[in-house]
Amino acid sequence: MMSETSEQLFLQRPESLEQLIEEITPDIYANLKSAIELGKWNDGSRLSAGQLELSMQAVILYESKNLPLQERAGFELAANCSNKRAGNKSSETTQINSVGD
Questions:
Q1: Residue 71, pLDDT above cutoff 50
Q2: Is residue 100 classed as helix, strand or coil in its secondary structure?
Q3: Is-above-0.90 flag for pTM?
Q4: Segment among 37-41, 73-77, 85-89 with least mean pLDDT
Q5: How far is CA 36 from CA 16, 31, 66, in A?
Q6: Rounded CA separation 59/87 (Å)
Q7: DSSP assignment, residue 7?
Q8: Cα–Cα distance between 88 and 51 in angstroms, integer?
């Protein structure tokens, strides 16, 4: 089953998603992130598909509210993708120019 602090967070039934995110502590965030990465809770039980989805949403929302952009999950991946796109565009431009010459 999920860690005690994470379980308490989800059982509290906050009035809004905003309130839920505000209740996430750095320890809960670390537990959720670890559970997502490993696919299981601290006690070894596997995350269900629903738990995985909700945990991912909670981590993304927590990060958007509490972490600078460069520390958020997926930042490095997004930066690498945009660099590759920029590189591809310049090579496409070069190819088009050389065809026209």
A1: yes
A2: helix
A3: no
A4: 85-89
A5: 23, 9, 19
A6: 31
A7: H
A8: 38
